[in-house]
Specification:
Four Helix Bundle (Hemerythrin (Met), subunit A); globular; Rossmann fold; disordered N terminus; ten-stranded mixed β-sheet; 10 strands; alpha/beta
């Protein structure tokens, strides 16, 4: 989702050589990308892929808008066993597809074992895949074609073309893979296009984080539990920080002190901006609480919440300034672990590779994900879920109003037992697991639980510091994927 998935408006806290492909023209390879991937320990290897662009229809479901755009996708075929070898197809998230490609190590780790081609497809309106170029975000009329349904149709059309144009791919089993929003798309892809994909691995996919499916407070409770288990008084001191910020920000001298203490690039004029920035910080930390040094959203140490909580293990009875000194040091673990930042800018998100404006639009149309906090079961300020206020903000920003139940209407909500061949993996540390499928729904709708896992840890590269639970999860996932590939091959021979 995501890095902070930013699911609701109240959660705002919460060249190139190109290759253009169409099904009726020849394929011209014009760009080769080479990256060296490094992780702690013995792993040090190169990943490489080719970049392609596909002429995709702007509107798959109407006939008035007949234009096309260039959808970017990346292909790595060095391990592909031609003549029917499988295709692992990454269903692109709300951001630059190259970023997801380089952070989805699971696919790279298993490509040789499976003899698989890897395809990473960019989601329309993100990265370089802009239906109307620079005008794509200009108004609601141009944004009208940004939806999960259109994106899934993009993926289906692209796969049809790939299988028709790549020699040897006609009988290839396609397995959808995705994490966060991409995981939701992977699951929905299998549901809506079972003739296109043989199965789906949906990692950290909150397909039930919608109205009347899960309690609105579950997300922030899991975030708070992560901090509670990571250090004595850690979540209690964060809970107390909101009032402390209010008190200090009530005077000019207090605002000046806060600006200095947090090393802010611009002086505070009120405390609300600082509080929303901190709320986003704690949420992001919960999502990337990985067991090793990582650079998914920010450069961070191993188990970053434990490092953060080292600055917050004092008695809650300390003074406001002592408390906020600890909060400032904790925030700097996230924003300046390397020590390279001369100041911190609270007006900028720490998720620069994600298309936040596009996600806001999706949240304002079909991705309505209620969130709330009460300050008792969680460490955040009380905040009710108010659909009308949310709708009004959407209308003010985009001129559209959300359809609260649309995800349930289109994708089945919690009534999905008629579907098949989907793995839902979730981590016990991941706040998005509260809206995920965490128990088996049938023999082929399988839930994989990773107690020590943060946001889609199983989709990351193998690492010597991985907990046993994620190693077991990946083994189970590969075993099931092999079964799907075998089933698809058998069906093809009938």
């Amino acid at each position: 989702m995501k890095a902070e998935f930013r699911a609701t408006m109240p959660a705002l806290v919460s060249v190139f050589f190109l290759l253009v492909v169409s099904c009726t023209t020849d394929v011209f390879a014009l760009k080769w990308n080479l990256f060296r991937h490094k992780v702690p320990g013995p792993l040090d290897f190169e990943i490489s892929y080719k970049t392609y662009y596909f002429d995709q229809k702007i509107d798959h479901f109407g006939f008035l808008e007949d234009g096309t755009f260039k959808q970017r996708y990346l292909v790595a075929a060095q391990h592909w066993q031609k003549d029917g070898g499988p295709i692992l197809f990454y269903t692109g998230n709300e951001g630059d597809i190259a970023w997801f490609c380089n952070n989805t190590g699971f696919m790279w780790d298993v490509a040789e074992e499976l003899g698989a081609m890897l395809v990473f497809a960019e989601h329309r309106y993100y990265g370089e895949s802009m239906p109307f170029g620079a005008e794509s975000y200009s108004d609601a009329k141009h944004l009208n074609y940004l939806s999960s349904e259109q994106a899934l149709a993009d993926f289906a059309v692209l796969i049809k073309c790939l299988k028709a144009s790549w020699p040897g791919a006609q009988t290839s089993a396609v397995i959808a893979v995705g994490g966060s929003y991409g995981g939701m798309l992977a699951a929905w892809f299998r549901m809506k296009y079972p003739h296109v994909v043989a199965g789906a691995l949906a990692a950290s996919a909150p397909i039930w984080q919608f109205p009347d499916m899960v309690p609105c407070g579950v997300f922030y409770k899991i975030v708070s539990d992560d901090f509670a288990r990571s250090g004595v008084n850690c979540n209690a001191n964060i809970r107390g920080s909101w009032n402390a910020i209010d008190k200090l920000s009530s005077t000019d001298e207090g605002l000046q002190w806060l600006s200095r203490e947090f090393s802010l690039c611009a002086p505070l004029t009120k405390g609300d901006g600082l509080k929303s920035w901190l709320q986003e910080t704690w949420v992001n930390l919960a999502m990337v609480d990985y067991p090793y040094k990582a650079n998914f959203l920010q450069p961070l140490p191993a188990w970053p919440i434990k490092v953060v909580c080292q600055h917050l293990q004092f008695s809650p009875e300390v003074s406001e300034r002592q408390l906020l000194h600890g909060i400032a040091q904790a925030a700097k673990v996230y924003y300046n672990y390397t020590g390279d930042a001369s100041c911190l800018n609270i007006s900028q998100s720490a998720t620069g590779n994600l298309g936040m404006m596009g996600w806001f639009y999706q949240a304002c149309t079909e991705m309505v994900m209620p969130m709330c906090s009460d300050g008792v079961q969680d460490m955040f300020e009380p905040q009710e879920w108010n659909f009308q206020a949310f709708s009004d903000e959407c209308y003010a920003m985009f001129g559209v109003r959300p359809r609260a139940d649309w995800a349930e209407v289109v994708y089945g909500g919690k009534d999905i037992t008629s579907y098949s061949n989907i793995i839902f993996s979730n981590g016990g540390l991941d706040p998005w697991s509260g809206g995920g499928v965490t128990r088996n729904l049938s023999d082929s709708l399988v839930a994989v639980w990773i107690p020590d896992g943060a946001h889609h840890l199983d989709l990351r590269y193998n690492n010597e510091y991985d907990p046993r639970s994620v190693l077991d999860a990946r083994l189970q996932e590969v075993t099931i994927i092999k079964q799907w590939i075998k089933q698809s091959a058998a069906q093809g021979k009938v």
